[in-house]
Design goal:
CATH architecture of the largest domain: 3-Layer(aba) Sandwich
Largest sheet: 8 strands, mixed
Number of domains: 5
């Protein structure tokens, strides 16, 4: 055996030495690029993405890390880890934060670093030559309204005419965008997305106001399409030119949310644009020698028609999550005309830019990014977040008791010193007593602070996106540490976090991205206490639905939320701004009755509310008491507080995680089965004035009034046999007579009369007093307000409450 070992020992040693020598001769990794890419070709005040390439010429794979710092902020690094296969090059993107430094006319300087982390060892790979630092000069442009556009053929924005023979339609689409931006008064800032694949990070569209799709390249880029979809859900504005874009991209963007139906594609030689309210013949017709493409579609109920062409929708829009998507179905050439010398030229570098047709006016309004977005700001959640993770402080009675004991101790010291006849003892006994009390306060406060374990908490508002199995979430993040030291903050869902860095200037930290949606902070140290930040992300929720119907007691429904649990303090918000409390069950079923209607400024039922309920009510008030956000308009909504099963952030090991979200779900009503009793709360029955002064009812005036009011039953219960109605009326009308009449068969039947009413009344309508439903489910009442005397009164009358609860039997099919 020993002889065998001697024979093979020397060759084996030679092989090992040669292997080590070969390894020492392996070529180092190479780094190229590190320039802005994606939806922007420049850096700006917001987050950005840098595109780079790592080359591995070795016969074995390598683990690499690419890091970037701004020279004026060397303590903050942005890094990306990636695996590079053998003898290959990999292209990727790195997310970087807002630049803090000085910008020159040439651009902004950034420093890049490449590390080889193979085998667990991190080795800095220096650039070739004598350079010690990879320095890049990235283009920079201050934040301004920006539009990013994607076409099938990559176009050099500095020389677009070079592709004219190959793709003239793309050039027409680009001109269309320039004409629209000029008409909207926006600067000449159109960005052409050149990369074959978009970065997969959500921050890729930060600083972009609109994205335009005039091509189908995203069919081969599902990750980029996902990033675009989630950006729209968070409030982005997208324009899709359907004549240039594959419908499969639209399906991926909208999901199953009532998609429109594409009928066919035709070529038009004459086009007549018109608005939905115009007569078809009012607008002039334009002829074209070369046919213009039109995609003929049948819109869904969620679409808002802006412009028609030859009787079909030419432009329409819809809300997707918190964002907005504009669709055009007619090719760009139809919307433009040759420039007249009298037409003003907004962009000096485009003197021959065509002029816009009159039909573009509605597009300008929809396209302009200055429109108000979501009225609710995450800052409103801060009091709730701090209370959720805060530790208790010494109560007022305890403080009074301690200070009282201190005073008694001083009194005792004084009596004792008087008896001993040694007044000099006061000079050191008094300070000792004071020091003891101060020590007691410090120990009490420190023990109270340390009693709370490290905590990661989020409080957020989540808007579900029907048809997409996703929800758009924005809110506040907080991490609590009882002592100073390193902090663990990570996200596995692509959440974009803007951490409050006040007081952390000069402290080293690194935001490390491990893939498109996972990142963490390394080397981050935080002082003791609470550190907060704003965040947003799109969460996979599975199919979320809230369906309901009107039953014998009121609204009966079912909520399904696979990604959320522990529902509480739920309310219904109707499309006509009525609010009702909801009784939720553990299985997701819920009910809401007419007497669950909430008073003005009340959003949680109950005479006595807990501290948490009061904070939640404050959030409801901020979100719902002002104008309804555009994406929630004309919808019945179920709002409930709940807990996500997978929080967006990962905190320190051994710490606790608190996640509370306000979930907003559109409520879908189903028709009640025939032959069942139906009760419809007044909040679901809007009313308006008809006949003279048709429109919104007058709710306050100093003049007499005679209003015929029509109350419209909801579509799911418009065909019922009316059996009973209760009118809820509260009107303050000093020195007036108020009369209410029910109208049946064109006859007015007085059901209420009072002089100078001030208290609320409930007026029951049954039998002969019951009004008759019209053909479309309307109830007609007449409200008359007269002066008691002939003098003109200066004190106004005011209607504070007016509504009708309706009871009946659902119609039986004939």
């Amino acid at each position: 055996m020993k002889h065998f070992t001697r024979i093979f020992a020397l060759p084996l040693a030679i092989v090992i030495i040669h292997a080590q020598a070969g390894r020492s001769q392996e070529e180092p990794l190479q780094l190229q690029g590190l320039l802005p890419a994606g939806s922007r070709t420049t850096l700006t005040e917001g987050w950005g993405t840098l595109k780079f390439e790592v080359i591995n010429r070795n016969p074995s794979s390598r683990d690499a890390r690419v890091a970037v710092v701004y020279p004026d902020q060397p303590s903050v690094r942005y890094a990306r880890d990636l695996w590079v296969p053998a003898r290959s090059a990999i292209t990727s993107w790195l997310t970087v934060g807002p630049p803090p430094g000085t910008v020159t006319k040439e651009g902004l300087e950034i420093h890049g670093f490449l590390y080889d982390r193979t085998g667990g060892q991190q080795t800095l790979v220096l650039p070739p030559g004598e350079e010690k630092i990879r320095s890049r000069l990235a283009r920079y442009r201050p934040r301004q309204p920006s539009t990013a556009m994607l076409v099938d053929t990559p176009i050099d924005p500095e020389n677009p005419a070079s592709i004219a023979p190959r793709d003239a339609a793309s050039l027409e689409a680009i001109d269309f965008v320039h004409v629209l931006r000029a008409a909207a008064g926006l600067p000449d800032n159109l960005i052409m997305m050149q990369d074959e694949f978009l970065p997969q990070t959500p921050e890729v569209f930060d600083g972009i106001d609109q994205v335009i799709l005039a091509g189908s390249r995203l069919l081969n880029d599902p990750a980029g399409l996902k990033a675009l979809r989630q950006w729209v859900q968070q409030g982005g504005r997208l324009w899709v030119m359907l004549d240039r874009t594959d419908s499969r991209i639209v399906d991926a963007l909208l999901g199953d949310d009532a998609p429109f139906e594409i009928i066919d594609r035709v070529g038009l030689t004459s086009i007549r644009f018109h608005t939905p309210t115009d007569s078809f013949s009012k607008r002039p017709e334009r002829d074209h020698e070369v046919p213009i493409d039109q995609v003929r579609i049948i819109p869904s109920g969620n679409d808002q028609i802006l412009i028609g062409a030859n009787g079909w929708p030419a432009a329409f829009a819809r809300s997707v999550g918190r964002g907005r998507v504009l669709f055009t179905t007619v090719a760009a050439r139809a919307w433009m005309r040759p420039r007249d010398p009298r037409d003003p030229s907004r962009y000096s570098r485009l003197p021959n830019l065509p002029a816009g047709d009159r039909a573009m006016d509605e597009l300008v309004i929809e396209f302009n990014p200055r429109e108000q977005g979501h009225v609710f700001q995450s800052e409103e959640l801060r009091p709730m977040l701090v209370e959720e993770i805060g530790y208790s402080v010494m109560s007022q009675p305890t403080v009074i008791a301690v200070l009282g004991g201190f005073l008694l101790a001083l009194l005792g010291i004084g009596v004792g010193v008087r008896r001993t006849k040694r007044p000099e003892l006061v000079g050191w006994l008094g300070p000792i007593a004071a020091l003891g009390v101060a020590t007691l306060f410090v120990v009490w406060a420190e023990s109270s602070r340390r009693a709370v374990q490290p905590t990661t908490a989020v409080v957020a508002v989540a808007d579900t996106v029907p048809g997409s199995d996703e929800a758009a979430v924005n809110g506040l993040f907080a991490v609590y540490q009882p002592t100073s030291g390193s902090a663990m903050i990570a996200s596995q869902s692509g959440a974009v976090l803007k951490l409050d860095t006040e007081g952390l200037e000069g402290q080293s930290r690194m935001r490390l991205q491990t893939d498109a949606w996972n990142w963490r902070y390394d080397e981050l140290a935080l002082p003791a206490g609470v550190r907060t930040g704003f965040f947003k992300y799109s969460v996979r929720t599975g199919p979320i639905s809230a369906s309901a119907h009107f039953g014998s007691e009121g609204v009966i429904g079912k909520l399904s939320t696979p990604a959320f649990a522990a529902w509480s303090d739920a309310i219904l918000c109707t499309r006509n701004r009525g609010f009702l409390s909801v009784q939720m069950n553990d299985d997701g079923s819920f009910t809401s009755r007419p007497y669950d209607a909430l008073a003005e400024e009340q959003f949680i039922a109950g005479a006595v509310l807990t501290d948490r309920q009061q904070r939640r009510q404050a959030v409801y008030r901020q979100l719902l008491a002002s104008a309804t956000p555009r994406h929630l308009e004309d919808k019945d909504l179920l709002l409930t507080w709940c807990e996500p099963k997978e929080p967006p952030f990962v905190g320190p090991d051994g710490g606790r995680t608190i996640s509370t979200m306000l979930l907003i779900v559109p409520l879908e009503f189903e028709s009640t089965a025939p032959g069942n009793r139906v009760t419809i709360p007044a909040a679901f029955i809007p009313f308006r004035r008809v006949e003279a002064g048709a429109g919104k009812a007058t709710m306050e005036s100093v003049y007499p009034s005679d209003m015929k009011l029509r109350f419209q039953l909801p579509p799911s219960a418009s065909r019922i046999r009316l059996e009973r109605a209760i009118v809820h009326l509260r009107i303050r009308a000093p020195s007036r007579t108020v009369q209410l009449a029910a109208i049946s068969n064109d006859q007015a039947i007085e059901v209420y009369s009072a002089d100078s009413p001030a208290e609320p009344v409930d007026i029951e309508l049954v039998g002969d007093r019951l009004p008759q439903l019209d053909a479309t489910g309307g109830i007609h009442l007449r409200l008359t307000i007269k002066n008691l005397g002939s003098d003109t009164l200066e004190t106004p009358w005011r209607i504070e409450t007016l509504g009708v609860d309706v009871m009946g039997m659902s119609a039986v099919k004939e």
